Amino acid sequence: MVFAWTGISDLRIPPLVEHVGMDIVDRCDNLTDITVDEANEHYASHDGILFTKGYDSVLLCPRAKTGEVNLPEGTKHIKEEAFAECSITSLSMPNTVVSLGIKAFSNSRSLEEVKLSEALTLIPQEAFDNCQGLLALDIPESVTRLENNAFSYCKALKEVVVPDNVQYMGDNAFSGCSSLETISLPDSLKYISIRMLAECSSLKSLEIPSSVDTIDQQAFMNCGAVTNLKVPDSVVCIGERAFALMSNLKTLELPSSLRTMGMTMFFKDTSLTDIVCRAPEPPVLGDNAFNGVNENLLVTVPCGSLEAYRDAAVWSEVQIQDSLFYTLEISVNDTTMGSVVVEQAPDCADMRAQLRAVPATGYVFVKWSNGSTENPYWVDVESDVRIMVEFAKESATEGDVQAQDVRVYARDGMLRIENVSGSSVGVYDVMGREVFFDVQGGESSYVVPVPCQGVYLVRVGTATYKVFVR
């Protein structure tokens, strides 16, 4: 510590020096330049920065050095605290750099831009901690781990994309990044660490990857700009205060996989009015979870789970209702041909829906995508359901119908279908009920008895005919 806490502005290392302790210039706030005699066998300097001989490793950047730094090609390592508390504004690493030391750039508050080597696989603990001026960050695809506090309190960062190869992000990885508005997390991530995004008060939206199974304590605490959040159906455990002090959070969706949640979970979430919890059994919820929440908070749980939640510890402190969470997705083969009316929507009392297919003028109802020709049609919604209705162009109105070689007509109270040529044949009444169906089309002609006189729809292959039987 020969020159520590002194006002020196430059340091010259003579040829015979074999060892330089990195604390030799500790707190030398005016130091701008380090030079090494070319005859020295152990050290070298480049642009006023101390290296090992041959420029293999960066050892020390003077605290008062400013401006841009371009590390020489061939540099492999940036040692622990090498650029800590420096005044440089930008740094470019060659792709020969394979490692960074702990706190390599910590507290370099003037650093605005850094180009990271594409050979790095790890960003170590506190590597860029408190780099308050860092404006942009491009993490290379080669990186697989971000250690604790890797980019904590980088208060000027607004956008971050974490590459898909990153499998681990340590505690406080981006905590305190108060200007951060968007962050893209990789699908390879399984664990949201302690305070990983805590105090990211400008973060507007957040998508948790479906690979995550654990969210640790205070992970998103004080992310005050997030308004809506969905926890994916892979998450089993959420640590205490994970969602505390999210003052603008309005809606939160919790998954069916969830088993435990820690204490003071929603502390002072004053805007939170809706929680949807899809877990059929109430997750274990720590004490004081709802302290300071909005007095109008309503928790919605699955059908059949209402009483269990009302009887469960802590959950019983808030208003709870049940609802059917399954979705009913209805589509039409061509919306110009017709539409579907939901005449009865499913709910917890009756998990069935009644659907009616309504053809437009000049078109007819054919069938539902599951093959049913009933109309109206009852469908059980005991899981997510997708169903499509098929309409077809009305080919004729009554009497004898011919199209190409196919002939469809009524005689003696029966439908007669001729020249089918191996196509499937179906006959339906006006309510869509099946009267006759042959999927094989094994006959060239058919005589189909009908239950009563009226209008019938005959489908031959993809063509549909409308015939009146007297």
Distinctive features:
1% helix, 5-stranded mixed beta sheet, 1 helix, 5-stranded parallel beta sheet, 470 residues, mainly beta, Leucine-rich repeat, LRR (right-handed beta-alpha superhelix), 34% strand, 39 strands, Immunoglobulin-like
Q: What would you say this structure looks like, in words?
A:
- With 470 residues, the protein is mainly β.
- Among the domains are: 134 residues, Leucine-rich repeat, LRR (right-handed beta-alpha superhelix), CATH 3.80.10.10; 66 residues, no CATH class; 69 residues, Immunoglobulin-like (Sandwich), CATH 2.60.40.
- The chain is 1% helix and 34% strand.
- The longest helix has 6 residues.
- 36% of the residues are buried.
Q: What is the compact description of this entry?
A:
With 470 residues, the protein is mostly beta strands. Helices cover 1% and strands 34% of the residues.
Q: Enumerate how many helices there are, as a single number.
A: 1
Task: Kindly estimate the percentage of residues that lie in beta strands according to DSSP.
Answer: 25-35%
Tell me the name of the CATH class of the domain at 190-323. Alpha Beta
* Terminal residue distance: 112 Å
Round the mean pLDDT to the nearest integer and report it.
90
Going across the biggest sheet, name each strand in turn.
3-4-5-7-9
Beta strands, count: 39
Named at the architecture level, the CATH assignment of the domain at 190-323 is: Alpha-Beta Horseshoe
Largest sheet: 5 strands, mixed
Given the helix and strand composition, which structural class is it? mainly beta
